Amino acid sequence: MNGNxxxxxxxxxxxxxxxxxPSLNENVHTDVCVIxxxxxxxTAAYLLSKEGRTVTVIDAVGVGAGETGRTTAHxxxxxxxxxxxxxxxxxxxxxxxxNAFRQATDLVERIILNEGIxxxxxxxxxxxxxxxxxxxxxxxxxxxxxxxAGVDVQLVEQVPGMRFTTGPAVCFRNQAQxxxxxxxxxxxxxxxxxxxxxxxxxxxxKIVSHGSENVVQTGSHEINASSVIVxxxxxxxxxxxxxxxxxxxxxxVLGLRVMKGSIPRILLWDTGDPYYYVRLxxxxxxxxxxxxxxxGEDHKVGQDSHPEHRYKxxxxxxxxxFPGVETVTYRxxxxxxxxxxxxxxxGRNPVDNSxxxxxxxxxxxxxxxxxxGAKLITDLIQGRPNEWSDLYAPSRKPLHGISTFLHEQANxxxxxxxxxxxxxxxxxxxxxxxxxxVVESNGKKLAVYREADGQLHARSAICTHLGCVxxxxxxxxxxxxxxxxxxxxxxGEVLHGPAVTPLAAVSLDGLVVSVEDKSPSEAGTSGG
Length: 528
Prior knowledge:
- The protein is an alpha+beta fold.
- It has helices at 11-14, 39-50, 82-89, 91-115, 136-148, 180-193, 241-245, 308-321, 366-381, 402-416, and strands spanning 28-35, 55-58, 74-75, 122-129, 153-156, 169-177, 197-199, 206-210, 213-217, 222-230, 246-259, 267-270, 277-281, 289-300, 328-339, 345-348, 356-360, 435-441, 444-450, 456-460, 471-473, 478-480, 487-488, 494-496, 525-526.
- The protein is globular.
- It starts with 10 loop residues before the first helix and ends with a strand.
């Protein structure tokens, strides 16, 4: 079996059935409405319900249907190196970041112990090494900065147990990993035991504030809440401001079968750009094998129409560095929000009522940042001070990452050029079988997918968030917005925000389908 034989289903989704919850079927009054049933939303709901708040959680699909189920589920140091955080925010704030990471990991462990959640949580060492010689100086810089931040680290000459030469590495002690879907299942059970309510198949489309009260509109029903937490990876309730401060990146993951004991049980990542990150998972019922989980090969969402080569590159790297790799058993991708200054946005949403909160900008540390964000917002709602609130405030200006901010804005403006350029990559012909393409019909840009049997699916190619032209993603069979990271399936339904409404339905009149294009089993067309 190779990567092309494996569908895009994560290891976590394939090995655990999450509990299902009904759709909202009535108007609700609650203390707190949490939008999003991933680790951020469910952790916040758990903490607040434990403090006696009435909590209602809604999700457009269900528990773990978003990015938590597409992570690699590790707890290791920030993607933004400690020496970079020192340079941008100062040594005192680097200490705060280290404390946030430590407390978030400890909180997850404590919840697991208190609630008896069986999710494979384990503590282990993590190693950062330089992929090339030019990265070696950064290893020493990171070691000394981590020491100053109070992190338990050691500088080693070689990552132990690795068959390839890593060179010097920073060993971060007491890191962690778990099975994220099993953890969410345990959190959901605890929330309902504490009186919280969870609804799946319920998409929030708007938040309307009336004084100190908020109304979350779902299209068919309303939720009245004193506080609202938007935990949807990227906020849907902020059309512009937050989306200039962060950018969506697609990251790719393989799960490869290896003999048990052939690779040490550690976390491993490097200084490359993009970098590779590695962990092991032990599948139930298989005493002879582990699953080697490797992620990387990130790129801007919507800016690689045929990203299958990224899986091949990860597999080639894996086989070159871990000779015992047998077969590819899982393949998936996820979307990571990268903040311009390197730190997440956790707290009050700057363009909403003061009791509307967001958790976003995880920067590849979703398990840690989302847990820290849930704790921070719980403190704010409960009227307690939190030492991280200023550092992670969503209202902060991207002054510490101004060069990244300007680069990303230039990239976004370039994508909007596809609306105006006469030489944009479009045609009047439908795409090949099992392919998608942006085509021109009656002066309009259409997102057209052609099934293997010839059936056509067509929607407007204009993203319903802020009007960018979507691009085809052949690996996920989706339409991805290269401007702000929204994603849609072939029928235009939203897969990932900030968009909340589907791509508009269109007519297929005017599309050219030549005789040689048609297959004998062509089933017809679908424009609505």
